[in-house]
Design brief:
The complex is a heterotrimer of chains A (about 110), B (about 140) and C (about 130). Chain A is α/β, with parallel strands linked by helices. Chain A has 5 helices and 5 strands; from the N terminus they run H-E-E-H-E-H-E-H-E-H. Chain A has one domain: HprK N-terminal domain-like (Udp-n-acetylmuramoylalanyl-d-glutamate--2,6- Diaminopimelate Ligase, Chain: A, domain 1), CATH 3.40.1390. In chain A, strand 3, helix 3 and strand 4 form a beta-alpha-beta unit. Helices cover about 35% and strands about 25% of the residues of chain C. The chains are: A alpha/beta (about 110), B alpha+beta (about 140), C alpha/beta (about 130).
């Protein structure tokens, strides 16, 4: 399943990085503590978080995530959007809570 | 404040280890006075956010509560820096927290927004370099 | 699901409130940061988090979470456990990451606290 399909299924808004939506989602990571994300997330993960500041982009780039989903309708900061666009990291937003978002992604990855 | 059961809790600023301690105690106290359910919960959330604001920004503050048959009236005073733009401060996600506060997991900018959502009536009075007064009313 | 069943499903350790495992849980709120918990968590929901400091217990007490599930195999400091015992809030710890733990619970019928937000600053709770 790639990000395009995931975005469709979950009705996610794409804020930027639309060119990267064809990336294959191999797993998911949810978390807001950057050190934990750095330690535990993996390449190919879609990262689900409520953090909207620009530091999330560097983390995603380093860990080679396929993209970042912000939950509870959080709007990424302008700095974040600018950085993510430059780095080619897709930023998506959902109105759902983290638990609901993860639950649905999990079901899609483990049918 | 009107006639009712009154009590006051002091809160010391910059004491993050104890953040929430006053709120938990106040909630227990209110439960003992017969406040329950959603009213108790909303009151506790509003008080918690206020307590964290005092701890984050002021040297000291006071949470004054008056419980009547009709409502719970909460006045929170602090001697902090005051709020320069109240409208902006009310916005979800807006925060003046420094790195030190954010590193501890606070400062997400939801405080005043959450307080307002929990209240039936809400007023902020603030003066820069003097402090802030929050007046919250929750109907029973 | 009961806390017993959650413990089994997630192979979790019980760190506090071991005699309250019959509690029925229908909703969950997952977050590492507590500000959204205060804004959106429903009473009776289980708090799922990677944060381990005593704040999580105070907040669980304020919003009436039924229990706390700590993820990523983290074991909280003694102060957290002592406070949880004092406030009678069950605390479990699972080795699974937040994504996996939440996913498994969702697959077993637990639902979230917020299903949709209508617009900026407006929430439609479950």
């Amino acid at each position: 399943m790639n990000l395009t399909l995931l975005a469709e299924k979950l009705n996610l808004s794409v804020v930027c990085g639309g060119d990267g939506l064809d990336r294959e989602v191999s797993g998911g990571y949810m978390g807001d503590l950057l050190s934990d994300v750095m330690a535990n997330s993996r390449e190919g993960d879609v990262w689900i978080t409520c953090q909207s500041h620009q530091n999330i982009v560097a983390v995603s780039v380093l860990k080679e995530h396929v993209g970042i989903i912000l939950v509870l309708g959080k709007k990424p900061d302008d700095d974040t959007i600018e950085k993510a666009s430059r780095e080619g990291i897709p930023l998506l937003v959902t109105e759902l809570s983290g638990f609901e978002t993860v639950g649905r992604i999990y079901n899609l990855l483990h049918p | 404040m009107s006639q009712g059961y009154k009590f006051s809790f002091p809160v010391k600023g910059d004491n993050f280890d104890d953040a929430g301690k006053a709120s938990v105690e106040i909630k227990r106290f209110l439960k003992g006075l017969g406040i329950t359910g959603d009213v108790l919960r909303r009151t506790a959330i509003a008080i918690y956010e206020s307590e964290v604001n005092i701890i984050s920004y002021a040297r000291q503050g006071n949470i004054n509560i008056c419980v009547t048959d009709a409502s719970i009236l909460i006045n929170i005073r602090d001697n902090g820096p005051g709020i320069t733009d109240i409208e902006q401060a009310m916005k979800q996600g807006y925060s003046t927290a420094d790195d030190h506060i954010r590193e501890m997991g606070f400062g997400a900018g939801m405080g005043l927004f959450n307080i307002k959502n929990c209240s039936d009536d809400f007023e902020i009075l603030s003066e820069v370099n003097r402090g802030t007064l929050l007046k919250i009313s929750i109907n029973r | 699901m009961t806390l017993h069943e959650i413990r089994e499903l997630l192979d979790a350790r019980v760190l506090a409130g071991g005699n309250h495992l019959d509690v029925e849980v229908k909703t969950a709120f997952s977050a590492d940061l507590m500000s959204d918990v205060l804004a959106f968590a429903k009473p009776g929901s289980i708090m799922i988090t990677g944060l381990t400091n005593p704040q999580i217990v105070r907040i669980a007490s304020i919003v009436d979470n039924s229990a706390i599930l700590i993820v990523r195999g983290k074991i909280p400091p003694d102060e957290t456990i002592t406070l949880a015992e004092e406030l009678e809030i069950p605390v479990l710890s699972t080795k699974y990451i937040l994504f996996e733990a939440s996913g498994r619970l969702y697959a077993n019928g637990i639902v979230g606290c917020v299903r949709k937000i209508e617009g900026p600053g407006s929430v439609v709770p479950l």
